[in-house]
Amino acid sequence: MDHPLSPASAHIPPSFWRSAAVVASLVAAVELVLLVVTGTALLFRQGSSAPARHVATPATSKAQPHAKPAPLRVHAVAAPKLARSRVGVMVLNGNGRHGAAASAASRVRHHGYRIRSVGNASRMSYSRSLVMYRPGYEGEGRRLARDLGIRLVTPLDGIRPAQLHGAQAVLIIG
Question: How do residues 93-123 score in pLDDT, each as one tens digit?
Fold first, then answer.
């Protein structure tokens, strides 16, 4: 004869749920630690593909007494060939403010440069001032930029030498 099983108690004590929550939290914490350790190991392994740098210590420097350090690469800046009074500058307004080019031309003239022309740039959206120089006049362009406190110096771009009216450098006010 079949006897039905008596149902188990449907009531689970609260202490069981507390201990189950603690166990689940511990498992999650262990998983988090494993993920952090694995991620860190992967990141450091990718970064270590670069060659290791050798730091000279007294012991290693004695082993190679005649080793010469590698020469530093220095960008050679051309020295200006012309005096300021012989350098022609074209001053262009590139920011759209009325009178900006004339005011800058006055500052340039004050430093001893010759003003060849003053006008507007092809666009009025320059956010920073810049100095451009003709080929062969890098030193003069860099000196002009240094005199005016301008950091952006570049070879002539977008202006043909025939448009310079004899100027060796162009100052665009941004």
Answer: 999 999 999 999 999 999 999 999 999 999 9
Nearest residue to 115 (alpha-carbon basis) of 127, 128, 103, 106: 106
Tell me, yes or no, if the pTM score tops 0.85: no
Q: What's the Cα-to-Cα distance from 112 to each of 47, 134, 144, rounded to whole Å?
A: 53, 19, 10
Q: Which amino acid is at 4?
A: P
Give the residue ranges of the chain where pLDDT is below 50: 48-61
Q: List, in order of start, the domains of the chain with CATH numbers.
A: 84-173 (3.30.70)
**CB-based contact 109:141 (threshold 8 Å):** no
Give the SS3 label for residue 3: coil
Coil, helix or strand at residue 52: coil
